[in-house]
Design brief:
The protein is α+β, with helices and mostly antiparallel strands and about 250 residues long. The chain has five helices and eleven strands; from the N terminus they run βαββαβββαββββααβ. Strands 1, 2, 3, 4, 5, 6, 9, 10 and 11 form a nine-stranded mixed beta sheet that branches. A two-stranded antiparallel sheet has the order 7-8.
């Protein structure tokens, strides 16, 4: 059967994440519903990984297999004509039979955006940022350096997913200004991420920025591998899946 690879962008605000669940609307479920209408049968869509409820994506990758008779459908146009405005297919192309959106991944990059203006949050950016005031960015940068490298990130994994191990390799965290002078974007790239790992790392860095932790405290939390010793999880709305590398 032909295998179709998709690149998908979405605003995750009103969805219960990527993966189909027992209740609530999801990105995967919405796309599968449209594919079923086109193909006349259930078509399973496989994503590069889960995004949580409220998390966004600029370039989520997915694939699905279709009957030979449907091979030449212009999938991007067909799906975009049916999908809601908060989901868009950026690319749709035939892939090799051995391509797998999840198992072929080499690394992923996420961006987390903070809003630092104390007086207001720009309405157009409010769904995509976490408003946090009075941060010491120099301290946050020092703490971020401790996180880079190959470590056991068990202290930054929330419960809910069975996995074989918690060791991941995180590239140096990059901080840049966002679309507005009050926005600061932290980018996290790794060979894999644990459940809500980026949001937990961001929660740690913000706690350092607020002065609740010192940069020197980060290594002990990381090496302790105890989620209970790490700060709270950052809100979902500030997180965006930016790129999946194969």
């Amino acid at each position: 059967m032909p295998r179709i690879r998709l690149t998908v962008a979405y605003v995750g605000t009103r969805y219960q994440g990527w993966q189909v669940q027992g209740r609530g609307e999801t990105i995967q479920g919405t796309i599968e519903d449209k594919l079923a209408r086109i193909c006349g049968e259930l078509v399973r869509v496989h994503g590069s990984g889960r995004t949580d409820s409220g998390v966004h994506a600029l370039a989520q990758v997915a694939h699905f297999d279709v009957p030979e008779s449907k091979r030449h459908i212009p999938w991007r146009q067909a799906l975009n004509a049916m999908l809601p405005d908060d989901i868009a297919i950026l690319e749709a192309q035939e892939a090799q039979d051995d391509f797998h959106a999840r198992f072929s991944v080499r690394s992923k990059r996420y961006a987390y955006t903070l809003w630092t203006e104390p007086g207001f949050t720009l309405p157009q950016r409010a769904p995509f940022v976490w408003p946090v005031r009075g941060l010491d960015f120099e301290a946050m940068d020092q703490a971020a350096k401790v996180l880079a490298g190959t470590h056991d990130f068990a202290a930054f994994q929330n419960a809910g997913t069975e996995i074989k191990g918690t060791v991941r390799t995180l590239e140096p965290v990059v901080r840049t200004q966002g679309q507005h002078p009050a926005e600061w974007v932290f980018r996290f790239q790794a060979d894999g991420f644990l459940k809500q790992m980026v949001r937990n790392l961001m929660g740690l860095l913000v706690e350092v920025g607020r002065g609740g932790l010192a940069p020197a405290d980060v290594r002990a939390i990381l090496e302790g591998c105890d989620r209970r010793k790490a700060p709270a999880t950052a809100p979902a709305r500030g997180l965006t899946l930016e790129e999946v590398m194969y």
